[in-house]
Amino acid sequence: MAPEPAQRFLSLPDVAEILRISAAQVYALVRRGDLPAIKIGGRGQWRVESTALEAYIADAYTSTKDFIANHPFAETETETPVDID
Hints:
The protein is of the alpha+beta class.
């Protein structure tokens, strides 16, 4: 049997399952413009392109890395650990 081709478009519940968040949180990401999506059909079904989701995840990794690097509690190489007895 041939492998199933990757889906180009995902529903908001599918995205929620992938990210392990609620569909309402995904909808908020879409409405804020953080996660690009399209609205299709008369009933207005939202769809997120799988490449847009992957780009969102990559951006999230980058912004998280920047946050950690700039967080005041981040340990730098020049700092020495404090011994607590």
